[in-house]
Amino acid sequence: MILGASRYYARSILKARGIGYRTIAVDRNPHAEGLAAADAHAVVDITDRDGVLTVARQHGIDGIVPLNDFGVETAAYVAYHLGLVGITTEAAARATRKTTMRAAWTAAGLPQPRWQAARSVEEALAAAAALGCWPLILKPADSHGGASRGVSVAQSPGDLPAAVAFAMSAYDDHEIIVEEWIDALEHSVETVTWRGHTHVLAVSDKIKTPLPYRVDKSVDYPTRLDAGALDALTALVRAAVGAVGIGVGAAHVEACTTADGPRLFELGARCGGGGTPDPIVPYSTGIDMLSEVVRVHAGDEPLRLTPVAARGCCYRFLTPQPGVLESVEGLAHVASWPGVLDCAVTAAPGQPIGPVRVGADRAGFVITGGQTRADAERLADAAEREIRFVYA
Question: Residue 389: helix, strand or coil by DSSP?
Fold first, then answer.
């Protein structure tokens, strides 16, 4: 069973079928693209644990795969009740709430930004005083959904009320985290844990959109870290996965590297979002991540969890100027270029394009590949210039 059936989850469903599994896709949207790609499907909200469990029992499933944060706790719940491979419900809860995640890392003595929890502007001001530093990052404690929801930088006490309001706007639960801002090279790290060992598949370097928001503009593979710094980062990532309690399956870890070593930001108990598990990880490393995650959750032996390549990949997000979109030119031409692994514009004609504050505000993306990272980045630069947004 695969939880979620949108555009990229359709790839997961097809991967699972392609390596011999019968698939059941679950999504609340009856028109989700992936439902038609599965052998069977059910229109159920993936956060409805008992509803998904009922469907799982009906189909006698052998494994369940969460592909986003909203499905993590449901997958753990179903796996527990049916005796399937999966993380514990306690680990799933830690992986979907930053305060409990950070507390687990603190208990394990793992390096991370200094932080405090808050539920009001007054508590945020008290947290800032306790931390004794500026700027500060404010973010929701709830980590369902990712995509930089509610994350912003406050440069001074005067910025704090707006940053608190933005963090609280992301979810119904208004608990937030106030943490020191670490201005350093940021990374995303893709892992799969099997039989007690966490395998690091791919490590990126990230470029963010301008302050005060912290949205990914470009995610570039492989990292430029030297061997020593990379070893330190991967060791910390393995420890972070273990401290949260993820004993099996995928994890997506966000971290940074400072002059004093790596620091942890957050973690998801699932593959990286969008095109990360496919096509990026397979192209960059030679590991078919989606297929391996499906095998692991079905209780089968993975075929390859060690990289056999180090090709360049660039996940470039399109962030054009604000305005009312009339049309997009050049997208089909870019899609035909050798080395363009995928591209799309998510903004629709007639819609306003606004400033980028969260991931959903981005207007599209291009994924490029090359023999080296520089090759992939040059191709992404050219593609971004070629795709033209025409405004009304």
Answer: strand
Q: Which domains does the chain have, with CATH numbers?
A: 2-84 (3.40.50.20), 114-180 (3.30.1490.20), 183-310 (3.30.470.20), 313-391 (3.30.470.20)
3-state SS class at 55: helix
Structure tokens at 249: 């399956």
Residue in the structure block whose two tokens are 């993380």: 87
State pTM to two decimals: 0.95
pLDDT one-digit tens code per residue, 338-347? 999 999 999 9
3-state secondary structure of 316: strand
Cis link prior to 349 (omega < 30° from 0)?
Answer: no
Q: Can you say whether residue 231 is alpha, beta or left, with left for phi > 0 and alpha for psi between -120 and 50 degrees?
A: alpha
Omega before 320 cis (within 30°)? no
Coil, helix or strand at residue 195: coil
Read off the pLDDT of each residue in 16-25 and give the average, rounded to a whole number. 95
115-118/65-66 β-pairing: unpaired
